[in-house]
Structures are given as C-alpha cells and as structure tokens.
Amino acid sequence: MKNGKYIVITNNPLVNEVYTDKNYANLIDEVRFRREKSQTDILKEARDLIYLGAKLLIHPMMGRVKPHETPYKSVMLELSARGEELGKGEAAGGEGTPQADYESVIVIEDSIAMTEKLLNNSAYIKYYDEIDADLQFLDKLLLDSGVEELARG
Amino acid sequence: MKLELRKIAIKDVCFDKECKIVDGCLHVDPAKLEDLVLEDSRVKSVSFDLARPGESVRIVPVKDVIEPRAKLEGGEAFPGLFREDMQEAGEGITYALSGCAVTTTGPIVGFQEGVIDMSGPGAEYTVYSQLNHVVMVIEKQDYVDQHDHEAVVRLAGIKVARFLGTVGFDCEDYESEFYEWKNIGEKYAEYPDLPKVVYVYNCMAQGLLHDTYFYGRDAKVMVPTMITPLEVMDGALISGNCVSPGSKTTTYMHQNNAVIKELFKVHGKEINFVGIVLNPLMTTLKEKFRDRMLTVRQVKMLGADGAIISQEGFGNPTTDLMIVCQELEQNGIKTVLISNEDAGVDGMSEPLPDSVQEANAIVSTGNSNATVMLPAMEKTIGNLKDVERVCGGNVNSIQEDGRLLLEIHGIMGSHNLQGNTKLGAVTI
Fold this sequence. Notes:
The structure holds 2 protein chains of 2 kinds.
Chain A: E1 5-10, H1 13-19, E2 30-33, H2 39-50, E3 55-56, E4 74-79, H3 81-87, H4 102-120, H5 132-152
Parallel strand pairs in A: 1-2
Antiparallel strand pairs in A: 1-4, 3-4
Helix pairs in contact in A: 2-4
Chain B: E1 2-9, E2 12-15, E3 20-22, E4 25-28, H1 30-38, E5 43-51, E6 57-66, E7 69-73, E8 92-98, E9 100-105, E10 114-117, E11 132-140, H2 146-167, E12 175-180, H3 184-190, E13 196-204, E14 210-214, E15 217-218, E16 225-227, H4 229-233, E17 237-241, H5 251-255, H6 258-266, E18 272-281, H7 285-301, E19 306-310, H8 316-330, E20 334-341, E21 362-367, E22 371-374, E23 379-382, E24 404-407
Parallel strand pairs in B: 1-8, 2-4, 6-23, 9-11, 13-18, 13-19, 19-20, 20-21
Antiparallel strand pairs in B: 1-12, 3-4, 5-11, 6-9, 6-10, 7-8, 14-15, 14-17, 16-18, 22-24
Helix pairs in contact in B: 7-8
C-alpha cells in the first residue's frame, strides 16, 4: 500500500521522459532528474533521503549489467513527509526524527560500496555513444519491472 | 512419476537433404529448419551454420544454447510454449541429443550475449565448446520491437531444438537413464536416516533480457513454487536471459542442471533429495521479502535439514540469495550457496554486493573480472565486431593481430551458477 510520496531520482533522460508522463502520475509523484550527476551521486542522494526516513522501493542495482558497463542509474523511493522537512535544512535529531529503514540502509550502502569498487577496479569502463540509447533503455527496464510489481501490489 | 531419458551421443553434425542420425552424426536439412522458423511471421530471414569441437571457430554473440529434446510418450518437451493444452512434464520417455545444441545468435539490445570458442584457450573455459552446434542467425522484420525480438529468437531456438529431438526417435543407439520422483511421504519412508536436502533454484524475473519462463509463463508473475527435477529435464524451464554470458542460465543449463545431477548421484547414499523450490528473483524489496517468506516456508514444509541455493544474475539478486540463506540458517537449515565472484581484475576486492554472517558456506564458480587473451579464429559465426558490445568485451577488445582481450564473463557459461564449470576458488 502506498503511504507516502513515490519519487524517482535518475540521471537517465529516457526515464525522465517516460515517467514524467501523466499516465504514471498515480504511482510516481515526482521525477528528480539529475542529468549531469554520476550514478554514485544518484545513489548518495538516495542514501541521504533514506537516513531521513525514506524507503527504497526497488533494489538500486541492476540484475546483470554492472556499474562499469553503464553510466545510468535510477532509484525509486517512498519519502517520509517528516524526513523531507528535515531535509530542507531543519536540524535532525530529537523527537519526531524518523527512524531510518534498516533494510533500505543496508541495501543502499552495499550498493554504493559495490558501485565504487567496480568503477575503481575494473579492466575498463565502457560507455560510448554508439550504445547510449540501449544503455538508457536497459536502465529503464529495471525501473519498469519494479513499477509493474508495485502496481500488482 | 517416472522418466526414461534416452540419451543419444551426437559426435558430429552435417548438412544434408534430410534430417537423420547416422553413426552418431546428426544430419540436418537446413531447408526444413528454415520452414519451421519462418512459420513465425515476425522472422524476416534465418540462416544456419555448424560448429564442431576442436574447429577454429568463434560464435558471437550467443543468446541461448538448447539441447534438442523430444518426448516419445507422456506429453511434449518444452510444454506450455506452443500449445494451449499441456501435460505435466517429467513423465514417460524423453529423447535427448547429448553432445549437440541449437545455438541462437544475433544482437538484441546493446551489449549482451557472449562468445563461444570451439578450440584454443577460450574453449577450456566452457562446456559449450564440447558440443556440436547447429547455429541459427535470425533477422527479424523491421516492425518487431525489442521485447518481441527476444521472444522471436527464444521461441525459434526452442522450436528447432524440439524438432531435432524428434529425429532421435528412429535412432536405436541410445543409453537410458531412469529417474523416479516419489511423493514426500514415500521419500521420508525410503531413507529415514539420511539428511533431507532441498534445492532452492533461483531464477531471474526482472524484465526483458532478465527473464525465465516456467511452462511458458513469465516467472515475474509467479510466486516461489515447488517443482520436480524431472520436469526441469523435460524443458519446463526456458531461459529468456541475455546479459552476462559467463553466468547466465541458458536453457541447456536448465536441462542439464548440474546441481540436480549431483543431488541424484548422492541421493539414497549420503542424502535424501526431497525437493526443489523455484524462487523468482524480482526487483522490488517487497517482492524480495515476499519470495523469501514463501521460499523458506516451502523448504520448511518439505522438512529439510539442509539446502543448496544456486544463484542467477548479479547485483540485486545477491540480496535474494543472502536473505533466503539467512532465514534458512536461522530456522536451523544448513545452507550452502553457489555464486560467482566479481572481485575485480586482481581478484582482491570484496566479491559480492551483499552478504550476511549466516552465509558461511559458499561455493565459488570463479572471478568474472579475470581477463584472458584469446587467439584469432579462422572463422567467426555471427559478427566479431559485436565483441565490443558484449558483456566482458570493450572497444579495445579486438587486437590488431586478431586476438581478443576479454573478461571471462564474456565467455558463455564460464562460471555457470549451477556449477557446470571448470572454474572455482581455493583457499591459499
């Protein structure tokens, strides 16, 4: 059941284009498009929201395609209303600070660690223009699959 | 449930005017196969080629590898794909053309699929180099989108494999393997003193290029289910996977699942093999936790003392692997995992993106980031340039002298996650 606001943070233009469409308005409230950010930046932005009470809805790592094989990353979260207020600059801590979701913390921290490791310790990093459209498409597929699952309940 | 698997050892393959098996050589009529494939109006054209063990041949990019199988009695092989009615698989008589494969090629989306070398050092990394391949190159109609393209190639491969399986019906030179699967009460009574072991069979269910089909149905719309090893042998599980060639479970690896094979070997001697739970790997955390609950419940209902989990995919599926392991262990069920590693080029990095303390028994099928230099081959089936796109390859893969620099996960089946591989890890 949907409790809070569902957002997608992405650096993928295709995801931005498709998921800002009104057909998805019932499920996705906001797409935060960060064209110039790296996939690690996207994960860290999600992590910061998770520490303020947001929950990860879709696992942020792709099922096969690895971080050194694509520059794109899309993360879907359920925001905590209180956490969002805190994110706007109010000091966190004390009464009313949302509890961070344990599973989301574990998954996002592990994902950041693995992403940084593979980017730092692979024989090559291969993003190039020829397959850019396909890389955007593959990143969107993971999100599509998760959105379908969420719609099924 | 009783299955007789009649294995015909195929030692060679050739083109001919008719399809038949003579002295272990599979004769293939390409015109007949072409007619079959063109029944699907989404196919523009198809061509066939052959590759044999030891030849200087490289096949790239490979999508699926399928062992030809057909049923003489007891329904059809690969049920649920081509007909509305279906019978439970795993009963009756099945013909299998072992030593032979139908292999589908051609790029679908971006980089995926992999390389099979039929000789040289690359051949050492994969069991597929030991097979006689009937290779299909399919061109789709222009209007066919990516999802349909994948389906076209997947179904064409199965259709040809199923047809070639029927060619075995006239061949009397086979070896029979007999399998029996009893109900759980009988299994308990048969070996009351042996530890009861369940196999948790993870399969990808994450959208295009990351899918598995069970009786023709997309595993994304199923929950964890108890299945029998006999139906797996009859093609109840079909691969819709494309990405990460080293570890992806092809249809061949389902049909010849190495975990099932080994469990049958020790069943009744060291263990009591009581069941399989098929666990689809989904993308949302909610589905992962639901599937964990249902998988663990079924393993407990089978009364397992121990469990083996084989992995599929990398990244988010590692979370499924770990949380199921954790809960099984916490329920007193000793659990062994099978996974490959992504430990970086030097093999020194943390190899998995997720881990739990309870995962204290892991079988490794090798480090996928290890890099190898492969010699040039005299013939390429497919398109060598696609190596730059496949997983494990890159824009600098093709050397000036024709050699190929590749991470080993670009080689089909190099670290198969059901353990049908020559790679592993040792403690030093």
